Every structure is written in structure tokens, then in C-alpha cells.
């Protein structure tokens, strides 16, 4: 009965979302409104709705047993995620009603960036520590990671900055902001968060019509920085010099590929994630029938939700979910390559890169290819603020895509 209720609720959200998308006004001119209603970019909308629905269902399935065992409401996390989903869809609707010129203005990008940087400083002053990492800020009972805000803010800021060609001297300001942001994230500590910032910046800079020689230099610098950071952590950790902020990062790197070296300690989660993937087979054990979520995989609805998904629904469904995510990402890259306005193209590339990095890191860490990172799977893992921020970024892309798919008159309206 409970699973039936979860399915009905998910179906209700999908129907409401589709209804909202069909009944929005996109511009002041009635002719443009009618055209846009027929030109919704379904290659963006359908994968988003599909992954969101499956994600909400898996949040309930992965968390219900733990909540019941703790004497809590088994629907609590499900309802929180559902509320954030509804809020996200309403904000996406609002984005459709806002003129796109507003989202392309420098004030908009700088305000977002200021919020991101202030939140990163705030987490060091008044942050919440979980599992030895101080990455969260709590406001009115709602916890979020400032690094998530910074990722989205940097996309809009860098896209605005590189809306026109810049000289090498002019790169000092954006590079300083990227360096400062990554440094603040690095010392939370969140090594993968800092790497994500570097990669997003690299993609936007490399696609901003700079000479390929500069692109290669930036890529080599980023690769060298990543290797040097990992090597330094391994060296210092092996000499027991990381008892402070990077001690847990060293433990995760040490157990990459073989978590069974410490199956009841630091490798406990990864070991049971392997068991979950193995138990699922091609067709899964059935929705709600996971074994590892019953105390063997703590807080399974967050970083390891994909392991539970494969265990319950099978490898085939797991691959379908990844296919939907990569279809969404590929569509963003295609739109970026076709876009004639530089700033909009960079936003497409930035959002697509953010989704690609998060998906790749989460799946790679679950498979033991890289250390467990704490990066959620987009639209699948539990996390209301993460879902909200990604939805807002995608909503902006959907707005631009809708304009691109109408006529030349609509694209002219957003030129600054």
C-alpha cells in the first residue's frame, strides 16, 4: 500500500509538471506564445521528469526502512523531496515568465556569485560538520552545501564575463575568483568540489573562442593540479600528517579499488555498495526488496542511491536511468554548439558540464574507480537544495531553448 501511494504521488507530480509546461506564457506577443507552446524542448523536459520521478521513488524506497527502524515517519524524506520538487517546478515556471535579458545581465550574474562566495565563507564561520567535514550551512532548519550554489553561480558569471573576447590580462579577475572559490571548497574539505569548479571553469574558458594553445595549457595545469593534490594527500597521509582536515580524504583514496581491506571500517559503505550491485543482477530483487539498505548501507538515499536502484530494479533499469541523464547532457551540448549568442552558448556548456561531472563522479565512486566523494547523482539522490539549484539552471536552459526553437524574432528580444 505504501509503495502504491508513492507511485501515485510520483504520477501526480509528473502530470502536474506536464500541465504547467503546457500552460505557460512565454512572451508578450500572442503569436510567439502560441508557437512556443508547441515548441517545448522535450529532449530536455522528458529526461528531467523521468529521472526526477524515479529519484523520488527511490528516495522513499531507500530511506523508509531506516526511518521506520528509528521510529520516525517513513514518508518524511519522501515528502521533503517532493516539496522541493514542487518548488523547483514553480520556479522553472517563473523563469519562463521572466525576460531572458534579465538572466543575461551582469547584475544577475554578480549577485549569484556574491551569494555563492558569501555562503562559502559562512560555512567556515557557522557551518555544520557531518562525518568530519564542515560543508553544510543550516538556515531555518534547511541544510545546504554552499559549493552547490557556487557551481551554478560561476557558470552564469563566467558566461557573462566571456560573452565577448577577452585579452590575457583581463583573465586575472575571473581566474582569481575561480581560485578563491576552489580554495574555500578545498579546505572544507571537499577535494572533488574544488576539482568540479576547476573543470567547469576550464570548459567555459576553452569554449569561449580562445586559441587552442591556451586551452591546452589550462587543461594541463588543471590535470597537474589534480594529480599533485592527490599525490600530496597520499604522501602526507602515509606519514600520518593528515590528522586534520584531509585525514578522511586519505582514507578514501587508500581504499580505492579494494574496500575489503577494511570492510568493517573505512571501506564499510563501499563494500556493501558492491554487494548491492551484485544482488540486483539484470532485473533486480523488486522495488522495496533491497537487503543492503537494511542497516548495511547507511543513509542509502544520498550518495549510494544508485546502488539501491540497481539492487531493486536491476542493471537494465539502471542503464536506462543513466541513458536519460546522458541524453539530457548531450542535448545541452548540442544546443550549445548551435547557439549563435556567445553567453547563452556558454551557459548551455556550463550546465551540461556540471551535470556530466556530477553523474560521472557519482557512478565512478560507486564502482570503486575513484574515492567516495559525497557528490550526489543529479535528480536521483536525496537533497532538496541540490535538486532545486540544478532545476533552476536547467530551467534557464529550457527558456533559451524554447526561444531558439521559435523564430528569429524571439532571439532578437534577448540580445543585450
From TrEMBL:
GO terms for biological process: cell division; peptidoglycan biosynthetic process; regulation of cell shape. Keywords: Cell shape, Glycosyltransferase, Membrane, Peptidoglycan synthesis, Transferase, Transmembrane, Transmembrane helix. The chain crosses the membrane at residues 6-24, 45-63, 75-96, 108-130, 136-159, 193-210, 217-236, 313-334, 346-367, 379-400. It is found in: Membrane. Its EC number is 2.4.99.28. It is a multi-pass membrane protein. GO terms for molecular function: lipid-linked peptidoglycan transporter activity; peptidoglycan glycosyltransferase activity. GO terms for cellular component: cell division site; plasma membrane. Pfam families: FTSW_RODA_SPOVE (PF01098). Its main location: membrane. InterPro entries: Cell_cycle_FtsW-rel_CS, FtsW/RodA. It catalyses: [GlcNAc-(1->4)-Mur2Ac(oyl-L-Ala-gamma-D-Glu-L-Lys-D-Ala-D-Ala)](n)-di-trans,octa-cis-undecaprenyl diphosphate + beta-D-GlcNAc-(1->4)-Mur2Ac(oyl-L-Ala-gamma-D-Glu-L-Lys-D-Ala-D-Ala)-di-trans,octa-cis-undecaprenyl diphosphate = [GlcNAc-(1->4)-Mur2Ac(oyl-L-Ala-gamma-D-Glu-L-Lys-D-Ala-D-Ala)](n+1)-di-trans,octa-cis-undecaprenyl diphosphate + di-trans,octa-cis-undecaprenyl diphosphate + H(+). Belongs to the SEDS family. FtsW subfamily. Peptidoglycan polymerase that is essential for cell division. This is Probable peptidoglycan glycosyltransferase FtsW. It comes from Enterococcus hermanniensis. The lineage of its organism: Bacteria, Bacillati, Bacillota, Bacilli, Lactobacillales.
Amino acid at each position: 500500500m505504501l509503495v502504491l501511494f508513492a507511485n501515485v504521488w510520483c504520477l501526480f507530480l509528473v502530470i502536474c509538471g506536464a500541465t504547467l509546461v503546457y500552460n505557460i506564457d512565454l512572451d508578450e506577443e500572442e503569436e510567439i506564445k502560441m508557437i512556443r507552446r508547441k515548441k517545448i524542448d522535450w529532449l530536455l523536459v522528458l529526461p528531467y521528469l523521468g529521472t526526477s520521478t524515479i529519484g523520488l521513488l527511490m528516495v522513499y524506497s531507500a530511506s523508509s526502512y531506516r526511518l521506520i527502524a528509528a521510529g520516525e515517519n517513513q514518508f518524511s524524506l519522501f515528502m521533503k523531496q517532493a516539496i522541493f520538487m514542487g518548488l523547483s517546478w514553480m520556479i522553472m515556471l517563473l523563469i519562463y515568465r521572466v525576460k531572458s535579458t534579465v538572466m543575461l545581465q551582469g547584475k544577475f550574474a554578480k549577485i549569484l556569485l556574491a551569494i555563492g562566495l558569501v555562503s562559502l565563507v559562512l560555512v567556515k564561520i557557522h557551518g555544520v560538520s557531518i562525518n568530519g567535514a564542515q560543508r553544510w550551512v543550516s538556515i531555518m532548519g534547511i541544510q545546504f552545501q554552499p559549493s552547490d550554489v557556487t557551481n551554478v553561480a560561476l557558470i552564469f558569471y563566467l558566461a557573462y564575463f566571456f560573452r565577448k573576447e577577452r585579452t590575457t590580462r583581463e583573465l586575472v579577475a575571473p581566474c582569481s575568483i575561480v581560485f578563491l572559490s576552489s580554495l574555500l571548497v578545498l579546505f572544507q574539505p571537499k577535494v572533488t568540489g574544488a576539482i568540479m569548479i576547476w573543470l567547469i571553469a576550464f570548459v567555459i574558458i576553452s569554449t569561449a573562442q580562445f586559441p587552442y594553445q591556451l586551452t591546452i595549457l589550462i587543461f594541463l595545469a588543471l590535470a597537474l593540479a589534480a594529480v599533485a593534490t592527490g599525490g600530496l594527500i597520499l604522501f602526507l597521509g602515509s606519514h600520518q600528517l593528515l590528522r586534520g582536515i584531509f585525514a578522511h580524504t586519505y582514507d578514501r583514496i587508500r581504499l580505492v579499488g579494494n574496500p575489503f581491506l577494511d570492510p568493517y571500517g573505512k571501506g564499510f559503505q563501499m563494500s556493501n555498495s558492491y554487494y548491492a550491485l551484485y544482488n540486483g543482477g539484470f532485473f533486480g530483487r523488486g522495488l522495496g526488496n533491497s537487503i543492503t539498505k537494511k542497516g548495511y548501507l547507511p543513509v542509502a538515499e544520498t550518495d549510494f542511491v544508485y546502488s539501491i536502484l540497481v539492487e531493486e530494479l536491476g542493471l537494465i533499469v539502471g542503464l536506462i536511468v543513466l541513458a536519460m541523464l546522458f541524453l539530457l547532457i548531450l542535448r545541452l551540448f548540442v544546443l550549445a554548439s548551435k547557439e549563435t549568442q556567445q553567453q547563452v552558448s556558454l551557459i548551455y556548456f556550463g550546465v551540461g558540464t556540471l551535470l556530466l561531472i556530477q553523474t560521472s563522479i557519482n557512478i565512478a565512486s560507486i564502482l570503486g574507480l575513484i574515492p567516495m566523494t559525497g557528490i550526489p547523482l543529479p535528480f536521483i539522490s536525496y537533497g532538496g537544495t541540490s535538486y532545486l539549484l540544478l532545476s533552476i539552471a536547467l530551467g534557464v536552459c529550457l527558456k533559451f531553448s524554447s526561444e531558439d526553437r521559435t523564430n528569429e524574432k524571439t532571439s532578437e528580444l534577448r540580445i543585450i
